[in-house]
Amino acid sequence: MAGWNKLTVDSAVIHSLPVISVTPSTTSTTSTRRRRTTIEKLPDKVLLNIFSYLTHREICRMARVCRKWRLIAYDTRLWKSVSLRPEISGLHVGSLEALLALISIRFGPSLRYIELPIELITHTVLHELSNKCPNLTHMLLDFSTAMQLHDFSEMQAFPTKLKYMVICLSEVIFMEGFMRKIYNFINGLEILHLIGTYEKVEEEEEEIYEVINVHKLKGATPNLRVINLYGINFIDDSHIDAFSSNCIQLECLAVNFCNKVTGSTLKTLFQRSRRLKCLLMNQTSLISEHVMAVEWEKVSLQELDISATDLSTECLVDMLTRIPNLRFLSAGQLNGFNDTVLKSWMEMGNPRNLIALDLEASDNLSDDALYKFLSRHGQQLSGLVLSGMPHITDQLWMSVMPILNNARILVMGTPERLGVNIHVDQLMDGIANNLPRLERLELRWDPQNLRFSDKSQKAIDILRVKCLKLRCLVLNDGRYYEIVKANFERADRNTVVRTSTSSRVSNYYLLGNYKDLVFN
């Protein structure tokens, strides 16, 4: 064979082998074809699918590569969901003219979801969205940084097919001038989020303004199923009463961090809203007498959050023993939640349908009472949070691990320094061998309390191999975090291991309306 090096082999072997003819031209043709097979040869639909995994910022960078990629980047199918808030991973649009061009050229009928910052919320933009984006169903309007609104006196059009709307309120800007113009267009809303400034409030007390008229808003939104009033400092029981008087289809009401809510209208709420299944009242100012006045035995409630509400032991016993079908309970940071409450609930209530339990920082609960409850009902739980309690260590968790074989979410540990050590290798091994369905796990123990050996890699390997559904593992930053993160990264599972500074695990993922409640 000309042009090829001859191999010296045993003659008997040569005679026993079949004759194979290989020519240099065949090899060179194959290599030439390989050299010619580049990303440019991929069909447009394949490139479009690849681009769909990129963020809009990355897509904009790809558009500068060549004319073909620019055309694909402009495909409206890549622009179904758009955020124009650069501070929250969105695109930065420098001018109104640029945004109007984007709406016409790039968004069009494909646009389903858009987030707009205050500087881009004008009557011209909203008019263009209503004309050019007829399928727009989800909208977020961020007024939180506003010191002055644009002039909406000439606004005559607004998207009419909205099912989901988020309004981020300002502390000082009154919204009525804008809201009055959109009331006639939002009758079809099913999900409404009003986001307050709870996270921005400073310690010194300032004058509180009712920047949006809830009593008028409820008249324009009779079809609401989900209402989320988050961290709004002026929301009180009268506003809950207003929504319940007009929203007969209400399924989920969240008033987390609305500290003026006392529960005085809860009885009326449940009498009017027969479909209400989810009530979230984290860190409100509930009064035990108001809560006990509710006819709990008649409600359809399945999901309840009363964390950090200072309800009495008597009230908790009265409520939990009367709710007939509770599936989700978050009752952390309650001094009144003690062994008596848990025992009464087991004996006189109905926790048999419970799938999620959060008792974070319930210091008055003993490990013995928790063990008895979990021994009876642990197998049915999909989510369990027992964090923030120094007396609940790995010993209790190891004893109940075989019972929690259906768990998808677990949160354990406390960031406080303990006088005992947590044997994390043994804990990880128990999790791996007993919890095949686990999706989210958080260990909040101080890194100094975690004890692990040189063989800890084996325990992590077993966890990674056996818990294939695990998508989130949160640890406090430290040496053990670095070991676990490196182990998962070697297996190309780069996004699983996270630090507690950037991620928190919660049972809220198990709420029936979780996707509807997500904002930002």
From TrEMBL:
<protein>
    <submittedName>
        <fullName>F-box/LRR-repeat protein 12 isoform X2</fullName>
    </submittedName>
</protein>
<dbReference type="Pfam" id="PF12937">
    <property type="entry name" value="F-box-like"/>
</dbReference>
<dbReference type="InterPro" id="IPR032675">
    <property type="entry name" value="LRR_dom_sf"/>
</dbReference>
<dbReference type="InterPro" id="IPR001810">
    <property type="entry name" value="F-box_dom"/>
</dbReference>
<dbReference type="InterPro" id="IPR036047">
    <property type="entry name" value="F-box-like_dom_sf"/>
</dbReference>
<feature type="domain" description="F-box">
    <location>
        <begin position="36"/>
        <end position="82"/>
    </location>
</feature>
<dbReference type="GO" id="GO:0031398">
    <property type="term" value="P:positive regulation of protein ubiquitination"/>
</dbReference>
